[in-house]
Amino acid sequence: MGCNQYQDQLMDAALGGLPPEREAALHAHLRECASCRSEFDRQQRLCAAMDQALEAGVAAEPSPEFLARIRTKIAEQPAPGREWLGGWLPVAAGAVAVVALLVVWFFSREAVQPAPQVSPVAEVAPRPKPAERPATMPPQVAVRRARPSARPSLLAASAKRADLPEVLVPEDQQAGVRWLYQAMHRHPATVIGILAEVAAQTDAASAPIQVEELKIKPMEIAPIQAAEKDGQK
Amino acid sequence: MDALVGHGVEAAVILDSGLEREFEERLADSSTLAFRLAYSVLRNREDAEEVAQEAFVRAYQNFPRLRDRTRFRAWLARIAWRLALDRRRSSIRRERREQAASVPQPVPTVEDLAVSSEFQRCLQQAIGELPEKLRIVLLLAAVEGRDMREVAALLDVPQGTVKSRLFLARKSLAEKLQWAATSIKTS
Lengths: 233, 187
Description:
The complex is a heterodimer of chains A (233) and B (187). Chain A has nine helices and no strands. By secondary structure, chain A is an all-alpha fold. Chain B is built from seven helices and no strands. Chain B has helices at 2-42, 45-61, 72-101, 115-128, 132-143, 148-155, 159-186. The termini of chain B are far apart. Classes of the chains: A mainly alpha (233), B mainly alpha (187). The A-B interface holds A 11-12, 14-17, 43, 46-47, 49-51, 53-55, 57-63, 66-67, 69-71, 73-74, 77, 79-85 and B 12, 15-16, 18-20, 23, 27-28, 31-32, 35-37, 39-40, 43, 45, 48-49, 52-53, 56-57, 60-65, 119-120, 123-124, 138-139, 142-143, 145, 167, 170-171, 173-175, 177-178, 181.
């Protein structure tokens, strides 16, 4: 290996970062080459001066009053333990309150049962006994009674009719829900009919959905007038 | 009820006293480290003392949140380092504004300056140009007397990482100083 190859290793060797086997080879060359030895000595002096200047640069001592000034500044601060407690107690209390509210809200939601699709007057009429109900129920729409103080329904057409339940629907879903409601109204107990409507709405190139026919008996609900008469009897 | 409240207040006072006593011990042990680390960045004793004091105040305010108290020196070193860098950046911006506003002073030539001063200036400039990861290892090694184990503990990195970063930092400085020395000779 010539001097050129060893020249690149001189700095690493001066810094003490050369692997042992390469360092041994380099020192063997330095014993024979005065030029490289001279350059290596220069690199070593540079690194030593650098290390010395580095250590001198951080060897400064603080003033004698340094610690006293720190203690004075710290004494002006509130005690860390009490402040820590005082700071975290309101946060902890707030977190407990939020959790309590969430629990109350969750259980109040659970109490709201999805009601069967009945007319508004069904609330005062006697509910059919479980034995009188058909074996299979038609698809039901979960409705919520609209209280007078509640927000006006977004499904304006249905809200205006007193005999229809009020459903709160987001604005961007009104058209779809209205169409679904009307389809279910036309075919109250036939899922195939609804799916046929879906097929009619889709692209003509789409293959129609093949579904086995379901046999669902319509739910028999006594007309209002007849129920009132029964009650009066 | 009053007895319970009284006991609660007493417990809080004991907690405060214990924390403060523990902090006082850490203060005595780490004050020089914080100062020297700040000084290595700022090169000014007054600024370094102010930064070190601010680092201790912040450490004091957050002391109860420190889970592992054995990491206090490393934690304090990081706070002091960050504050020193922020202070240095502010000083540089202020100096630039002042220089832009003031009449330019003649730059001393290489012949006007003592070699050791010029060497120190070139060294500080080269340190400032190092990437932060290498710079902090270099300065901490200088502060801790090249104790690799201590530097590794302060930075929470393996000793091998400290050694390799220190080597890279010193090599970068040496190459820049070598170039600067050549420039001074030939000018």
